[in-house]
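Dear Dr. V.,

Thank you for agreeing to look over these. As mentioned in my earlier message, I'm a first-year student in the group and I'm still getting used to reading structure tokens, so any feedback on how I've presented them would be very welcome. I ran two proteins. I've put each sequence directly above its structure. The first is here:
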Amino acid sequence: MEDIESETDTYEECLRIFNEYVPPEEDNNLNKNKRSKRSEEHAEEDSVARKRVAHHGTVNRVNKMAASSRQVMTPAQALYNRLQRHQQKQLEQHKQASQGDRSKASSPPKRRIAHVPNVSALLSATEKIKQLKPAPLAARPVLAPKPEPTVIQTVTKGVKRIAREPNVQVLARPTVPLEFGNKVPLVIRQRYLNLIIDECVKIYDSEKDAYERALEEEKTAYSKSLNRALYLNVTVNVIKRLRQEATEVEAFNQEMALMAERTERKPNIRTLSHKFVLGGKAAANTSFSIEKGRYKQQETVSKSNLYELLQEYLLTPQQLEENGFPRPDPAAPGRAIITRNELRNKKRSTAVERICVRCGSRYMVSRQGVYITREECVHHWGKAWKRKIAGSIETRYTCCQGDLQSEGCGVAKLHVCDEVEGQEVKGYVTTLPRSTPAHGCDVFALDCEMSYTTQGNELTRITVIDADLKPVYETLVLPSNPIIDYNTRFSGITEDDMEGVCTSLRDVQAVLLNKFSERTILIGHSLESDFKALKLIHSTVVDTSVVFPHRLGPPNKRALRNLMAEYLQKIIQNAVDGHDSQEDAVSCMELMLWKIKEDLKKS
């Protein structure tokens, strides 16, 4: 019994201790770690049967690097933004002023007034000033409005500084529109547009009118120019013309101001100079000087002395031979000797195997010039010029700005050649001597246009003008061989122009021999090509390509249109339908007349 009671006591004691025991609080992190370990154990057990799926969080995390990095504004951008804000502000003020809804200025802030001694005397003086009668408006002097002063202010530390904005209304200057494949760089066009604007502002009272005129002038100059050099020449001439116009406008304004001032004077008062009183009206309009020979008057060029003045510009026999002019062959009458330029290394075409002058391809023809193989000619119609691009010198074509390896930009039906070996020295005529001085002292300028035939380049048009720039002979010529290509881009001759033409080369030679003598001076640009087309031998020649040489020397020659743009500020050969022989002949005569006058000024 005692053993049983002892066992029951022990059981009750253990039960009491168990019921009184309170478990200690465990850390949440430990519980989480235990739970995560248990979940991992369960996941490992169930990995064979189930696939683990990632949990998509709902919290939007912010990239601290992206938030911390901010774009820093450059000083140029800050100035540009400030100018834009100022222009926008000026436009808004202008709109408010035009509508009459400008808000009234706010009341000025209170100012501190310094102590003034003797206030009673100051107040009495103020009352006396008020009692005085104001002067009439006509007697008051008109004062120009004073510009508002700029107050220099400083800000306290930590306050953002604000840039001062001017009170003058500023209109944004126009810019050149951006185009693809510009003939002239955009920076150069914008620079010269600003120069034109500076001159137009002097002419017009309104900036808007000046900007419109400047944009129109620059656009016209750009449309007339084919390259950068020509654009510079044209724009410089435009600026000179605008400066002259500005001086005329200024002189006109001054004259109008003087007239207004004279009308305000009394009509019975007349001012007379001392010179007018002593010598009368004729003496007042005459200038006298004790140095009569100091300023030499410019000598005018007349028909009588033009022939003598052109003598120093005549080509020598050596220059005629070096430039490829046809010279008479003493061994065979009717044939010419043409010196080839060895520097060009030009391949020559034979009777059956010829070389295209446009694309350089070889093609075969029969003895009569009939094409054996008819192929299209893919070529560049412009010339290849060396230019500095991105610091390096590259050769590009003027027609499409392509390099030497680029495919041609023009397509013709057939290949062509300019001359055939053996055919270019036959059928020449020589100008004859004359005893009549009237014909021997004549001066003419001529130019020819040629087209491609089965036997090379042949004459299709000729124009001859006199010293008065009037045409004396002009006609279309029918070649002796069939025409393959009219070369309209450069000759200006079309198929419609040649309908009904029956004048032959022999007819033209007869007219020229009757009009010219061996002493007649003929003026032209690269006349050797014209003489070859005319089959004419003449020695009294003035060639503008020799008078105005190229800076690199022969065999390089300057184009006639560049000479006219540089020296006479004229644009020629700008028509879409090709060149005009009359225009080229007149240009050659004008160049030589200008050259003579300039040399007379220096002498």
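The second protein is here, in the same arrangement:
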Amino acid sequence: MDPISALHTKDVEKLIEFYLEQADRQLIGKKPNYKKFNDRFEKLQPFEKQQFVLDKRIIENRKQDHIRGETIERPTFDFEKRDIRPKYFRTVNEIYQEAGQFAKTYPRLIRVETIGQSERMRQHKINPSLADGHDIKMLRLGRRRTHGAEKPKILFIGGIHAREITNPEFLMRWTRELLEKYGKDPQATWFLDNYEILVVPMMNPDGHEVVESGYMGVDGGWIWQRKNHPHYIDRLLDNETDENRNHKPGWGTYGVVMNPLSDIYPGEAAESESETKALDHVFATETNLKFFVDWHSYSQLVLYQPSNEKDVVPPVDAEDFRIYGASVAQQNGYTPQPGWQLYPTSGTTDSCSYYKYHVPSLTIETGKSFHMTYDEFQSEWAVVRPTMDYLVKTFTRWRDVSEFSPKIEKVKLDHKKGQIVAKVTNPETISQVEYVLDPDSVEPGHGIQLTKSDGKTYTADVSYLLDGFYGMPVTGIEDGVLVYVRAQDEITKEWGAPTAQWLIKPVHKTTTSVRLPSRVSQFNQAPWLSRLQDTK
């Protein structure tokens, strides 16, 4: 009989029990002895090593997860019912199909690009007899400019750990809402007109496929898959890698286990994985990239200040990271803390972004479990969506906002009085409120001030804009005109995130109108704008 097909030898059985003992030690807060495990593993015969690896998923299913001090109780699934996915969860192909439909429906607003291939696909190209992998897709959101300066960019990624299944769906839902609301909702229109938002919903599509197979009861599937999922080529050991430990700089130094069986195995070398190279290429080639956010699950945390561990010299921007992290956490009620406070790590995406490419970054941990129920998903979405909006509102001026920055509750236009009306939170702490036509090119404090009328309300006369100064047909602008209102705190002198509102709403295509190349550039060139600024 083939020894691999035979029953476990005693040495393999003992090693399995020892491996489980180390997992139990981790559960009670003691340090696992992986060095001893490695030593015993190396003493096995080749066929015994292979038997151990083939049964890895059985072993892992017997382990209890120990994530951030909590024990996860795995749900018991009746696989005879087959597909037991949560209602919000979709396959790789389903998500990619929706992305393709976005590009067909909104060609002015989104492009779907391939930024690289999974490690499994790379192996398939070398040996076509192996099962294929997946492309890694990036959604490039933003109305295309035919002239003018390059837009500031922000990059969101999700799904780098396959079992964290909600974040690809959060990113896709947010993308869908922006596209559907463009030209109707002032915030969505602001974002897509003024910025490029880069979204990689699934950094680990092969791992995601393992999870979806696990949900559907397909042989080889596993809903707790974390790492990527390459083929085992000429190796006895499982060679799956944690993509969020595979980056430069700092690879392999902290918070990793140099054992391929570990969930935090960083790979054979820095940037050894195709998925890692794909993301690194984005960092290297996307000019004017201003901010990066990696979406994970779970713990409801905003992790700032990329660092390996607390005794490493913090980045020079440590205080700015702390302040901005707290302001982001204010949007969702999460806990802000430096990344090393959760646990020491190295080779992570946020460290790569900041230390290698000097792009500031955050990691946000959503939810309270890897696999939320549909109701939990809906509840979490209610805080994730405004967080994503806030990040886009502030990423170009992330150093200038804090948890104390004032918030504009609501902005509306009173056409009868020809006024902008804004309501603020905590009016007793407000120093001033202003409006601008472009929040990025006009520095805070250089806009047109609103006057406090009563309580929380501030107003400003804009009738001359509505009527058209010097006879300009303002009401004929087809794409509409946005106005942005922001407030300053009296004590800290910090400015809060702007809130957008229509000054002139878009005109329907059936209405005779003057089509202009850009709402912002046209207003910047208008003669009445310079006159208006002179009268401030």
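From my reading of the second output: Residues 340 and 404 are 25 Å apart (CA to CA). The chain has three domains: 3-63, 92-400, 408-534. Does that match how you would interpret it?

Kind regards,
E.
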